[in-house]
Amino acid sequence: xxxxxxxxxxxxxxxxxxxxxxxxxxxxxxxxxxxxxxxxxxxxxxxxxxxxxxxxxxxxxxxxxxxxxxxxxxxxxxxxxxxxxxxxxxxxxxxxxxxxxxxxxxxxxxxxxxxxxxxxxx
Amino acid sequence: xxxxxxxxxxxxxxxxxxxxxxxxxxxxxxxxxxxxxxxxxxxxxxxxxxxxxxxxxxxxxxxxxxxxxxxxxxxxxxxxxxxxxxxxxxxxxxxxxxxxxxxxxxxxxxxxxxxxxxxxxxxxxxxxxxxxxxxxxxxxxxxxxxxxxxxxxxxxxxxxxxxxxxxxxxxxxxxxxxxxxxxxxxxxxxxxxxxxxxxxxxxxxxxxxxxxxxxxxxxxxxxxxxxxxxxxxxxxxxxxxxxxxxxxxxxxxxxxxxxxxxxxxxxxxxxxxxxxxxxxxxxxxxxxxxxxxxxxxxxxxxxxxxxxxxxxxxxxxxxxxxxxxxxxxxxxxxxxxxxxxxxxxxxxxxxxxxxxxxxxxxxxxxxxxxxxxxxxxxxxxxxxxxxxxxxxxxxxxxxxxxxxxxxxxxxxxxxxxxxxxxxxxxxxxxxxxxxxxxxxxxxxxxxxxxxxxxxxxxxxxxxxxxxxxxxxxxxxxxxxxxxxxxxxxxxxxxxxxxxxxxxxxxxxxxxxxxxxxxxxxxxxxxxxxxxxxxxxxxxxxxxxxx
Lengths: 122, 546
Hints:
A: two-stranded antiparallel sheet, 34% strand, B: Rossmann fold, 4 domains, 6-stranded mixed beta sheet, 20 helices, 19 strands
């Protein structure tokens, strides 16, 4: 499903994939987030997605003219996860409102994984 | 200085905290949009302060333990994007010094700075150059080079500081948006402040004030100074002093004093404990603590008298105001408002509790929650009246037991318009729907000054220029408030407009406002024009057109 607007000249149609990409790119600019996770996690296996298909970690739903977004993210071990998630919500909302002109109903963030690159000594 | 001891390191961190607290407004002003706004400096300062509080709890002799407390405190206290980056930076710093006990050498310091930088790069997908990350990396590289050449720890720190300063200077080269606005990166500048504080600390400069001391008093000032106290004040003596001793136990002091008053703050260690408490019995408090050790720097203020004096002197300032509690209402209203005059207007329109706040003075979620809880009503509607407050307001919805609705009003005029559609007897849902639907019928204009030079569209803006904003976007630039306001109104009024309301700010001359009013009445004879003293800071005029 896509979101449609009507202008005097005709229809404007923004595909769901575009919205998902905008959300994915905005999320990835947030410090602490190191990847998007696939929406369905099988057997607890969360593999990091490559950057080119970031929209896969983003779920878009429309309620009337408002959009509801769920992001499945992976964060770096050692950051304050609650704060990173909050920043992701703010940035994604900002990106949707400014670049797409859509109204946001809610932004849900699901932290699906924590990446440990170098185990700390403590 | 050849090596750094634990107490020197602690001193460095305290200096960094003090300097950052002092400079946070400057860092905030580097935000790329030229309205007094932005919170990078505040976020970094709060994060660092949280870390310093944690440091106070450990003995400074062991460096490994000290930096571990630094990492832990900044992690727990991380606020905002820049705060999260800073907490990662300190985490790396702690890893680098984990095995160091009493003295950190030049190599140790260089390694810690390298680890700090590496750790910050690890937690980001798309590192952007020209930011705090770059500043940390350049500092680390310079530190490593200096250590290699056999420099002392102090020289290594100097090298890092100079490289950081250069990297901050260079940040506009990496980021066009900074170049266009003529500023350096805010987060980078914040980190530079920390390095500068380190340098002051290692040079043994006296600490003019500690960020830790400042914060509690700042909170207290807010309670004493701005809150308008009605009637007789309970616990009216603000009592502050230090206990000097040998085996003091802050926890014991804290739990013993707890029942004697409120707004209590007890910090310290075995040798010195600082006590701050609001109480009706300062004598009992002093008597009790005097038995534990020597008392010094005793200060007792009567807040009741202070407050009366303050209220007289600051007619324009105001505090949270509450309507007299009557019968329990169906739906109560809480509004966030930046000035005394505006507060009176909102109160006259039926708002139960006013929380002072607005641009650059956002109330915390806690302030809002307290206001909501104090309303004698089954459900409460919050009017944030500023885009930066909407988020906190929404959080209250989850924290309060009462059903809470937030009408996402982004400006004062939107708030006032929403209030026109408030029906005390209707349901919460009905009210929210009506207020939300109609709030955008009004156009909002604001007149303020640019905090620094920038370019907006094809408008060239110099620092201190007067700017007029329509719905938060710069529309008019000029030199005088009257001229800008006139042109702003012109750009907002169209043939459908019927009411123009003007609220002038606390720094605005009433006579000039009156003159402007006369002029507008002549020019827009078709419209009804109203002018009020809003008393808001920062904005000379707020204009609403509907």
